[in-house]
């Protein structure tokens, strides 16, 4: 039986859920995902828990914030002048910003005041412990 290694092409079903069981993402009711180990499709820590699994294996892993999207960083929450926004804003809305290198940076509108807007640039899953469930459909070793 072939086991997942760092040279594997993997086809799998996966599910990502919050601590309370709320689903973040799942493809168990869709076609399985295919990726090559190390191609950047998954975070390195998510890939590492797959090492040694075989076709047909179904496992569940608890992924702490340090091993997934990091802790919530208060310095990634910024106050910006309300006048900087030309569009109508709503709390929870995702707005795209550009950093000094012209890279796109999404921010979530966390609060709207008369003169200031609070924008959270943390990943939406930062600070959350996640459950990562997988079912390995097939494994092919790279030639």
Furnish the topology, listing elements before pairings:
Elements: E1 8-17, E2 23-26, E3 33-36, H1 44-48, E4 58-63, E5 77-81, E6 94-98, E7 104-112, E8 116-120, E9 130-141
Antiparallel strand pairs: 1-2, 1-3, 1-9, 4-9, 5-8, 6-7, 7-8
Q: Care to give the gist of this entry?
A:
With 143 residues, this protein is mostly beta strands. It is built from 1 helix and 9 strands; from the N terminus they run βββαββββββ.
Description:
The chain is mainly beta and 143 residues long. Helices cover 3% and strands 42% of the residues. The strands form two sheets. Strands 1, 2, 3, 4 and 9 form a five-stranded antiparallel sheet that branches. It has a four-stranded antiparallel sheet with strand order 5-8-7-6, with no helix packed on it. Strand 7 and strand 8 form a beta hairpin. It is elongated, with a radius of gyration of 19 Å.
Helix content: under 10%
Count of separate DSSP helical elements: 1
Q: How many distinct domains?
A: 2
CATH topology group of the largest domain = Chitinase A, domain 3
Largest sheet: 5 strands, antiparallel
Portion of residues in beta strands equals: 35-45%
Mean pLDDT: 94
Gyration radius, to the nearest Å?
19 Å
**What is the structural class?**
mainly beta
């Amino acid at each position: 039986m072939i086991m997942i290694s760092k040279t594997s092409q993997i086809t799998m079903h996966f599910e990502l859920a919050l601590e309370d069981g709320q689903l973040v993402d799942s493809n168990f009711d869709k076609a399985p995902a295919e990726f090559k180990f190390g191609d950047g499709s998954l975070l390195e820590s998510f890939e590492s828990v797959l090492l040694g699994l075989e076709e047909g294996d179904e496992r569940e892993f608890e992924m702490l914030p340090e091993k997934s999207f990091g802790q919530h960083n208060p310095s990634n929450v910024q106050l910006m002048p309300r006048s900087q926004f030309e569009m109508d804003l709503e709390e929870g809305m995702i707005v795209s910003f550009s950093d000094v290198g012209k890279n796109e940076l999404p921010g979530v509108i966390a609060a709207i005041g008369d003169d200031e807007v609070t924008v959270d640039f943390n990943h939406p899953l930062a600070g959350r412990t996640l459950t990562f469930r997988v079912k390995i459909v097939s494994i092919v070793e790279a030639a």
